[in-house]
Structure formats: structure tokens, C-alpha cells
Design goal:
By secondary structure, the protein is of the alpha/beta class. The chain is built from 9 helices and 9 strands. It has 2 domains: 183 residues, P-loop containing nucleotide triphosphate hydrolases (Rossmann fold, 3-Layer(aba) Sandwich); 65 residues. The strands form 2 sheets. Strands 5-6-7-3-8-9 form a 6-stranded mixed sheet, with helices on both faces. Strands 2-1-4 form a 3-stranded antiparallel sheet, covered by helices on one side.
Length: 267
């Protein structure tokens, strides 16, 4: 992993964090009680089967979903405290840019919502940093999928958030564009010492970007493996390939254990 600056981001503590949707016989347990601490200034990848509850965990950390039990704290603060100040930002698979606003207008909106002065020079500098110099006045419909994701990341980073939550942000683009975004963008939030969580289905992406990988079981999400990513490891090194195999094995184990439990319950 690239060297990080002194961490600005907080540690994220999930204490007994759980989520159940609905009630009674129709209730669906999405996330089993979690006891996790995500390190300050680190990028942690969350991987697991589709529908296992990864995005629900991310939304609870963001304050967008109320837990059924437990709590999330960020150096003692609630998610809403950071979100209202523009210190917590979230990027989704869909860039969710406002179609009637230019790239500059979409990025500047983050500052307005955080009730901060809109410094257009700073906005344009961030647009340039994500590789969109010259497209400040373009509307989202005029951009490729990869360019829209770059604009969405610029909107997240312009407030210099202490926490960045990424929910499959590169999942909707082609593999070449995804590789370029993976290579170009993480240095931006690392330079700010941001604490980041990344939900991804790509084991390769998790190994390439993260300092740590959490592997979840199928629903309800429970931790199957908690794996550090050593410095200088990449998916193209022998150690990186071994780590990818370890993550893949943990994913298979989490799926198999859940299936076995389901078979046992049915007997």
C-alpha cells in the first residue's frame, strides 16, 4: 500500500451493530451483531456474497440506515455529526450527478450542502485532480461512465471528508476504465488521510486498494475472515495472488457454512 499521511480520519467503531428489516415471521436479519473497529486513515475493503448485508453495513456507518441494535461511533461522534459538516462522504455505483448541473456545479454543490464557502478555484482544482480538466462546464450526459464516476469522486473529496464510504463505485464501468480509476483515484483520499470503507465484489480490487479486507458470510452478514494487506502487495505479485486465493477461499467457506446451516435447520 502507498504511504499515508498522518491520519486525519477517525477510527470507526461498530459495537454490536445489527440490522433486521421488518418484524414478526416476515423479518429478515440482514446483519448479525458486529464488533468491528476500522482503523483511522486506513482503507478497508468489505467483500461477501451478493445480498449479504455489506451495503447495509455501509449505510449504517453513513447514518443513512438506523441500526436495529448497537451503534456506530467515529472517534466518539455519531455519523450525522460528521455528515452535516461535510466530513463524511459516500460514493455509489451510480454517480448520481444532477443532470442539469455542470461538472463544476455538481462538485460545488457538496460545499453548499456542507454550508461552506464555495471556492470555485478549489472546485476546479479538484476537478483537475481527478483528471477532468477542461470538462468543468460539461453536463453529465456529455461524459462517459468513467468520467461521471471521476466527477462523483471529486464531489465527495472537495469537502476534504474525514470519512469516505465507497459502495461499488467502479462497478458500472468497463474493466479498462475500472483499472484506470483504481490506479488514479485512491491516492487522492490517501493524501488527505481519510478513513475509507470500500464495498466491492472484486477480490482483485480489494487486494489492489485496501489496507485490510473483511470477508462477510452470506446473509446475515458475519465476519468470516479479517485479513491485513501487507505493504507492497499487489494482485500481480506472488504474495498478492496468494492473498486473493485466501479471500476467495474465505468467501467460499462463508457461503458453504451458511448453506450447511440452512440444510440443518430444514431437517
Amino acid at each position: 500500500m502507498a504511504e499515508q499521511s498522518a491520519g486525519r480520519g477517525p477510527a470507526i467503531i461498530c459495537a454490536g451493530l445489527a440490522k433486521t428489516f421488518g418484524s414478526g415471521p416476515a423479518a429478515v436479519e440482514a446483519v448479525a451483531p458486529l464488533e468491528l473497529t476500522f482503523g483511522a486513515g486506513e482503507l478497508t475493503a468489505l467483500v461477501g456474497p451478493s445480498g449479504c448485508g455489506k451495503s447495509t453495513v455501509l449505510r449504517m456507518v453513513a447514518g443513512l440506515e438506523a441500526p436495529s441494535a448497537g451503534a456506530v461511533t467515529l472517534d466518539g461522534a455519531a455519523p450525522a455529526d460528521l455528515q452535516g459538516a461535510g466530513e463524511l462522504a459516500m460514493a455509489f455505483q451510480d454517480a448520481s450527478l444532477l443532470p442539469w448541473r455542470s461538472v463544476r456545479g455538481n462538485v460545488a454543490l457538496a460545499l453548499k450542502l456542507a454550508r461552506r464557502p464555495v471556492d470555485l478555484a478549489a472546485v476546479d482544482a479538484m476537478i483537475a485532480r481527478v483528471g477532468l480538466a477542461g470538462f468543468e462546464g460539461a453536463r453529465p450526459a456529455e461524459l462517459s461512465g468513467g468520467m461521471r464516476q471521476r466527477a462523483a469522486i471529486a464531489r465527495c473529496l472537495v469537502t476534504q471528508p474525514r470519512v469516505l464510504l465507497l459502495d461499488e463505485p467502479f462497478g458500472a464501468v468497463d474493466e479498462l476504465t475500472r483499472a484506470r480509476l483504481n490506479a488514479d483515484l485512491p491516492a487522492l483520499w490517501r493524501a488527505q488521510g481519510t478513513t475509507a470503507l470500500l464495498v466491492t465484489h472484486s477480490v482483485r480490487e480489494a487486494v489492489a486498494l485496501a489496507d485490510r479486507i473483511i470477508v462477510f458470510s452470506s446473509r446475515p452478514a458475519q465476519v468470516v475472515a479479517d485479513l491485513p494487506v501487507p505493504d507492497a502487495v499487489s494482485p500481480d505479485t506472488a504474495d498478492g495472488r496468494a492473498l486473493m486465493a485466501q479471500v476467495t477461499e474465505a468467501l467460499s467457506q462463508g457461503w458453504d457454512d451458511d448453506a450447511a446451516a440452512g440444510r440443518h435447520a430444514a431437517q
